[in-house]
């Protein structure tokens, strides 16, 4: 296949990449994510900017396959090699969410905290709300607990959902009271 690709025109390469991507998605959807990993890893290594869309979609599906197979270390490793400037913001935030979730599974709570906090500050409201909930769930495992700082940042970002912030502030107060 690699030899054929070297001698092919851009349209044939596009068709080949699309076929690999769609086949991989079908494998994931049909409950066989392991068979999707190799082609998706190949597609995420594409360096030609003409095929950036396939690369990004492949990366999202690779993280999905890794997640389904509990390959959390691989998610973290791939994420650290990504260049955020080459990925649209919404897709980058989805990849960061997968990575933060993987960090929780690996008990790397400080990394997860940093990723979730970044999502609270920068992601769309729906992603920020999910990140805030995830932060709340792991905050007892974090040595540098600072949920008040998180809530202040979330309050700035999530003005359209003040009840959510009020609920988290109430939980923070109850937990602080219980801890003495």
**Whole-number average pLDDT?**
84
Number of strands: 0
Evaluate the radius of gyration.
19 Å
Low-confidence stretches: none
Question: What is the tally of helical segments?
Answer: 10
What order do the helices and strands follow?
A: HHHHHHHHHH
Tell me the β content: under 5%
User: What is the helix fraction of residues, given as a range?
Assistant: over 70%
Query: Span from first to last CA?
Result: 65 Å
Largest sheet at a glance?
Answer: none
Category by helix and strand content: mainly alpha
State the shape: elongated
Descriptive terms for the model:
180 residues, 76% helix, 10 helices, elongated, mainly alpha
What does this entry look like structurally?
The chain has 180 residues and is an all-alpha fold. The protein is built from ten helices and no strands. It is elongated.
Tell me briefly what this model is.
The protein is mainly α. It is 76% helix and 0% strand.
List the helices and strands and how they pair.
Elements: H1 2-6, H2 10-29, H3 34-44, H4 52-68, H5 72-81, H6 89-105, H7 109-122, H8 125-138, H9 147-157, H10 162-179
């Amino acid at each position: 296949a690699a030899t054929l690709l070297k001698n092919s025109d851009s349209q044939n390469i596009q068709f080949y990449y699309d076929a690999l991507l769609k086949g991989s998605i079908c494998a994931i959807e049909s409950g066989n994510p392991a068979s999707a990993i190799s082609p998706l890893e190949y597609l995420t290594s594409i360096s030609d900017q003409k095929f950036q869309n396939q690369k990004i979609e492949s990366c999202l599906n690779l993280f999905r396959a890794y997640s389904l197979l509990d390959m959390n270390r691989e998610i973290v490793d791939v994420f650290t090699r990504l260049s955020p400037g080459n990925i649209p913001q919404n897709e980058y935030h989805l990849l960061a969410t997968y990575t933060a979730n993987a960090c929780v599974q690996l008990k790397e709570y400080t990394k997860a905290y940093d990723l979730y906090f970044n999502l609270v500050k920068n992601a769309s409201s729906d992603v920020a709300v999910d990140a805030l909930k995830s932060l709340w769930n792991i905050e007892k495992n974090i040595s540098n607990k600072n949920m008040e700082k998180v809530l202040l940042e979330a309050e700035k970002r999530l003005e359209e959902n003040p009840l959510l912030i009020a609920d988290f502030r109430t939980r923070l107060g109850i937990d602080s009271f219980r801890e003495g």
